[in-house]
Amino acid sequence: MTSGAILDIARDGIVVFLKVGGPLMLIALAVGLIVSLVQALTQIQEQTLVFVPKIIAVFAGLLLFLPFMGSALAGYMGRVAARIATGG
Prior knowledge:
This protein is mostly helical. The protein has two helices and no strands. The chain has one domain. Helix 1 packs antiparallel against helix 2. The N and C termini lie close together (5 Å).
C-alpha cells in the first residue's frame, strides 16, 4: 500500500467523521446558544440548566440522522474493505 493510498483512506475517514459528527455537534451548539441566550435575557444563572435540553436535542438529532450516519459509515467501511480485498 502506497503512502498516497493511505492518505486517501485517512482523508476519506476524516470526511466521514465530519459527516457523522457534524450534525450532532451543530445541534448541541445551537441548543447551547439558545439556552444561554434565554439565561442571559431572564437572568437565570443556573449552570446545570443547559444540560437537559442539550441531551434531549442531541438524542432527537441522533434518532433523526441515524440512517444517514449508518449509510455514511457503511459506505466508508465498504470502500476500505474493497481496498483491502484488492490489495491496495
